[in-house]
Specification:
The chain is mostly helical. The chain is 72% helix and 2% strand. It has one domain: MetI-like fold, CATH 1.10.3720.10. The protein contains twelve helices and two strands; from the N terminus they run αββααααααααααα. The protein has a two-stranded antiparallel ribbon. A hairpin with a 5-residue loop joins strand 1 and strand 2. Helix 2 crosses helix 12 and helix 11 runs antiparallel to helix 12.
Length: 290
């Protein structure tokens, strides 16, 4: 028996497709167009092929920014994922304090990125900032505007403060989805707390943890506003990440061709990482029989 397929739902999706076309696809095609052309001004362009891609690919500038970006993202994941899991494990599972904890954990996520950067820019100042002034009075030589290590520590602590809540909430949602029968069986078998976590909680959290890792890696890999507000890429170029370097090339130096090639390579790296995470998450779901 042939089933009649109703395609009327596509008319509901059509406005979204049109919006995405104007907000994403058309700008992307414009960037691709700039990446293979050069101009002498007066809106006159001539093709240069893959010249800009070769120039960017073999430049120390790109690889320096890429290395800093990877190191920053790796540190962020190494801190936020375990910390978020620990927080989720210690959050109350029922009672009055559940909504209180959820609201408190959500508050940092509601603060805009530029406001977060401004808060920590002031917070770390040695003259008026609580953190900088306190460390200075304790005899600790701290100045994130002049010392590379201090700048990195400030940015890492800022990002941990801002985004660890996301990991904790996702991990908490994974824990809440575990049926109580699993814990009852573990209690009957007199399993230790570590074994409960290792064999029950961690496997059940794999899906949400992969989502948390993906989101946090992508956010940290594309971070721009917070470090730009706090350090501006300095001191020197120590916190000049890929996004900041790209904006400097496109806007401050107005090298549209190289910047367009730079952004496309940036986009392809992010797309590749998304594909890897998607493949891993799909394999986990198939292994778990989802």
């Amino acid at each position: 028996m042939n089933k009649t397929v109703n395609h009327n739902a596509w008319f509901m999706v059509l406005p979204v497709v049109i919006l995405v076309a104007f907000s994403a696809i058309i700008p992307l095609m414009t960037v691709v167009n700039y990446s293979v052309q050069d101009t002498f001004g007066r809106n006159q362009f001539f093709p240069v092929g893959l010249e800009w891609f070769k120039e960017i690919l073999y430049s120390d500038r790109l690889w320096g920014s890429f290395q800093r970006q990877l190191i920053f993202s790796a540190i962020i994941l190494a801190i936020q994922i375990p910390l978020g899991i620990i927080i989720a494990l210690n959050m109350p599972k029922k009672g009055f304090w559940v909504p209180v904890c959820l609201v408190l954990m959500s508050l940092p996520l509601l603060i805009p990125w530029n406001v977060v950067g401004t808060i920590w820019q002031i917070f770390g100042r040695v003259d008026i900032g609580l953190l900088g002034y306190t460390l200075s009075n304790l005899g600790i030589d701290y100045n994130y505007t002049q010392d590379t290590l201090d700048a990195w520590i400030t940015l890492i602590i800022m990002d941990v403060w801002h985004w660890t809540s996301l990991v904790a909430l996702l991990a908490y949602a994974g824990l809440k989805s575990i049926p109580g029968a699993y814990y009852q069986a573990a209690k009957i078998d007199q399993a230790s707390r570590w074994k409960v976590f290792r064999h029950i909680e961690l496997p059940k959290m794999q899906g949400v943890l992969m989502i948390a890792i993906l989101l946090r890696f992508m956010d940290s890999f594309m971070i721009y506003t917070e470090p730009f507000v706090v350090t501006g890429g300095g001191p020197g170029s120590s916190t000049n990440f890929l996004s900041i370097d790209l904006v400097n090339m496109a806007i401050n130096q107005f090298n549209l061709g190289p910047a367009a090639a730079y952004s496309i390579m940036y986009y392809l790296v992010i797309l590749l990482i998304c594909y890897v995470f998607y493949t891993v998450m799909t394999n986990i779901d198939e292994r778990n029989g989802v």
